[in-house]
Amino acid sequence: MSKSILHMSHWGAFDAISDGERILNTRPYDKDPEPSPILYNIPSSHHHRTRIDRPYVRSGWLENGPGSSSRRGKDKFVPLEWNDALDLLAEELKRIYSSFGAESVFGGSYGWASAGRFHHAQSQIHRFLNCMGGYVDGVDNYSFGASNVLLPHIIGSVNPTLTENPSLEAIANHSELVILFGGIATKNAANNAGGISRHNTRGWLKKAHNNGTRFILVSPLQDDIAEEANAEWIAPRPGSDTALMLALGYVLISEKLVSKEFLNKYCIGYEKLEKYILGNEDGIPKTPNWAETISEIPAPTIWKLARDMAAHRTLITVSWSLQRTQYGEQPLWMGIALASMLGQIGLPGGGFGHGFTGSFIGHNPRTMKVPALPQGKNNVNKYIPVARIADMLLNPGGSYHYKGKVLTYPDIKMVYWCGGNPFHHHQDLGRLRKAFNSLETVVVHDSFWTATTRHADFVLPATMSIERDDLGIGMGESELFAMKSITKPHGESKDDYEIFSELAHRLRIGKQFTEGRSVTDWLKCMYEKLRLDLSEMKIQAPSFQEFWDIGTYQLPTEDAPQSMLKKFRDDPTLHRLGTPSGKIEIFSSTIESFGYKDCAGHPKWLEPKEWLGSDITKHYPLHMIANQPKTRLHSQLDVGDYSQKSKISNREPLRMHPDDARKRNLSDKDVVEVFNDRGSCLAGLLISKSVRPGVVQLSTGAWYDPDENGMCKHGNPNSLTADRPTSNLSQAPTGQHALVEVRKYTKTLPKLTVMDPPSIVK
Ligand code: PGD
C-alpha cells in the first residue's frame, strides 16, 4: 500500500493514496473539524474524459489563420505535438507583439485556478507576458469589485474588510445581535483562495447561539446561514436591502437612538444622509412604511428591529453578494452608515462586517507575508475593470467612466487566458461569444475542456495541482503546506510554468522568465525567503527538506480581531483612516464631485432596472439569484461525482417556492426552461420553501453548453444575466440578479455536449 500524501485545495487540505497514476482514496485533513465534501470531486474528475490530454489548435484557425471567426465555440480541434504547437504559438506571439504591440494583448486572465503559491496561474501568465513587453490587465475582481472601489472612499481601504472582520469567536463571546444582510453561507465559507486548513463556521455559530447571540438573516434564501445559528429569517425582495437599511436609520433618528457622539468624533457627512432619510432632500421620508412598499417587510418588523439594534451589542454584516448587483455600492455604504449611527464600530462583537464567508474570518490571522512568484513589471499602462471585458472587445477605442475618470478601451487582437473560465464567470455569455469572435487569436491553458477552452484557438493542457509540487497556504491562514504531487500528469499535460518556459525559450526570453531555475529551485527559493523573514523575527524555521518531510509548518499569528476599525476607535488621530478626512465618510465629496447619477455623495435607494418592482416583471416575473454553488467551487470540477450527484436529469438544479411552481403547473424534478430577453437555459426543478416566493435560485458554474440557438442545455445562469456594471464609479459585475420566467421543457431533452470532449480531427 502506498503511503498517503498531504495536499491542499481551495476547499480544504486532504490526504490521498494513489498508485502514482490514479487517486485510490482521499481523506480530509485530520485537523479539519468540518471538512467540505467538495473534496470528493477530485478523484472522479482527475482522468475524466473532459481532461485535455495534449495540445490542440482550432481547425478553422489552422485553415484560415488568425482572424475573427464565428466558428469559435463550435469548431473542431486538431491535435498537435507539443513542439509544433509551441512553435506555432511562439510565431503568433511574435506577430502580434511586433505588428500591434503589447497594448493589443489582453492578459488580465481573471480566475481562481488552483491552490499553490508557485504554480499560481495568474502569476505565471503575468510574469511571462511581462517578459514579452507587457499586456492589458484587468483590475478589481468578480467577488467584491464594487467594494474594492467604494471602500477606499468610505473607510480608506478595502483591507479592513479582508483582515479585521470580527472573528466568529468574538461574535460568540460578545455579539448580542447579529444582522446578516446576505447571510454567512456555509457553502461559501467552504472555500478560501489558496486553501483552507480548518473549516469551523458551523461550530462557532452553534457556540454563539448557545451563548445567547441572536442571529437575523436578511436574505431571499433561508439557507444563507447554517441551521446551527437558529437564525430568524427576514426575506425582503432581492435588491431592496438599502431601502430596508434606510428605514432602520429612520427609526433610529425618530426615536433619538442615533449615537451623535460617535458620528461627531469618527465620521463626516452624517447630516446630509439624515436630511435624505428624513425626506428633506427629495420629499420622501424613508419611513418603515415607505420601505415596506419596496422590500415587502412589514413596517412593524422594521420598527422593532431598529429598536433591538440600538438596545444590544449589534453587528451588521453585508455579504459580497449584495454588491454583485446594479448599484451594489449602496447597501455596503448604507450598512457602514447604519453601524456608524449605532456607534458600535470598533467595540468587541459590534459594528460592521463585510464578506463574512471567507474562512479567514474564523482564524487567528498570520502576521507575515508569504512569498509569491515575482510577476515582473508590466510596461503597458492600459487596463480595464475586469468585468468590462466584452465591452472592451466589442468597442475598441470606446470610452467609459471609472473612478471619476474617462478611459478608452484598447484595441485587443489576442486574448491569453490561464487559470480562469470567463465562459462561466462573465455575465451575458451570448454577448461574450460575440466579443471573443472578434479576436485574431485566443490562447487558453486549462486542465479541462471547459466552455472557455472550446472558444480558444490554442488549447494547452495544464496539470492539476495534484500532479505537481507546490507550497500551499490560504488567504489569511497560518499553516503552510508542502503540497506534494500525488500522481504523474494526465496524458501529455504540463505545468503552466513548463509551458511558459518552453515558449519563453523560443522567444529568447527564457533566461528572464526562468532565471535558470527548475520548479524545485523556485520552491526552495520561495521557502528560503520565508525562512529569512522568520529569522528576522527571531524564529528559526526548519530547513526546506525538513519542512518538506514533515508536510506542514505553523507560522506566527496574532489575536483574532474583535471588531473592525478597533485601532481607529481607540485613537482616531494616530490611526486616521485613508479617506480625505481621515474619518468614516458617510458623505464623500470626492464621489459627489464625479457627478454620477448612479452613485451620489451618500448612500441612496436607487431602483434597479431588474427587480420585482420593475415593469419587466410583466414578462419576466421571477427574480433569479445566481449565487455560488454548494457542490463545487465556481465551475471547477463540475464533472466530479459530488457536483454531478446534485443534477436533475443532468441539469443544474433550480430552486423555486411551491406557490410559484403551482402557478406554473410545475412538479419537483421537472426539466424547465429559464428564459428572458437575453437568453435561456435548461435546469432541473427543485421545489423548496427555503426560497422566498417570487424568487428562483440557480447557482453559477454548470459548464456552459449552448445549442445552435444559444440555449444553454446545462443550466449556466450567465446565459441570462446582464452585462451591466454596478455603476460608473466601480464598473463592477452584477451577475447575482436577473429577472426571468420559467416554463416546463416539453421537447425531447437534448444530450449535453460539454460533458464530452469537442470533435477532434484525427
Ligand atoms: P473557476 O471555475 O474557478 O471560475 O470565476 P473563475 O474564472 O475563477 O475557473 C478556474 C479555471 O481554472 C477552471 O476552469 C480550472 O479548471 C482552471 N484551473 C485550475 N487550476 C489551473 C492551473 O493550475 N492552471 C490553469 N491553466 N488552469 C487551472 C469565478 C468568478 O465567477 C467569481 S470569483 C465570482 S465571485 C463571480 N460570481 C458570480 C455570481 O455570483 N453570479 C454570477 N452570475 N456569476 C458570477 N461569476 C463570477
Notes on the structure:
The chain is an alpha/beta fold and 762 residues long. The protein folds into three domains: 52-138 and 370-520, Rossmann fold; 168-359 and 565-594, Dimethylsulfoxide Reductase, domain 2 (3-Layer(aba) Sandwich), CATH 3.40.228.10; 615-744, Barwin-like endoglucanases (Beta Barrel), CATH 2.40.40.20. The chain has 27 helices and 29 strands. A six-stranded mixed sheet has the order 5-4-19-18-17-6. It has a six-stranded mixed barrel with strand order 24-28-25-27-26-29. A five-stranded parallel sheet has the order 10-9-8-12-13, with helices on one face. A hairpin with a 4-residue loop joins strand 26 and strand 27 (680-687). It is globular, with a radius of gyration of 26 Å. The structure holds ligand PGD. Ligand PGD is lined by residues 111-114, 119, 121, 142-143, 324, 418-421, 424-425, 445-448, 450, 462, 496, 626-628, 633-636, 700, 717-718, 721, 735-736. Keywords: Metal-binding, Molybdenum, Oxidoreductase. Residues 709-732 are annotated as: Disordered. Residues 716-732 have a biased composition (Polar residues). It holds the Pfam family Molybdopterin. Residues 51-505 form the Molybdopterin oxidoreductase domain.
